[in-house]
Amino acid sequence: MKSIDQFSEIFLYRFPVDMRKYRNGLCAIVTTEMGKNSFGRDLFVFTNRRRNIIRFIYWDDSGFAVWTKALEKQKYQWPKSLFAGNSVAIASNLLALLLQGMNITSHKKLDYEKVF
Asked: According to the model, what pLDDT value does residue 56 have?
C-alpha cells in the first residue's frame, strides 16, 4: 500500500458498509453516495457495522487497490461527530491515529492564560 501521506485527500465514509463489497461495490459508493471521482489520487476509507474492520480503496494508475485491516478484540473509534454529510476529508496524521485505535475527535485544543 502507498504511504497514507501520498494521497491528495483521504475521505472517510460515514455509514457502515457490508464488507462483502469489494472493488465494484465500493467504487459505486464513492461515485454515487460520496460524489467523488474514484479514479483520482484520493484514498477512500470504509468500516463495517461492528467497527472492527476498515477497508481502503484507491486508484493506483493501473487498477484499484483494496486493502483491509481487521481488529481481533477492539473497535475503531469512528469519528461520527466530524461528519456533516456522507463523508469527511481528514488529514493523513489523523488517519494514522485512527488506525492505532485512537479517538481523533476527543482531543480539544487547550488555551491557557497563565501557567499557575
From this structure: 94
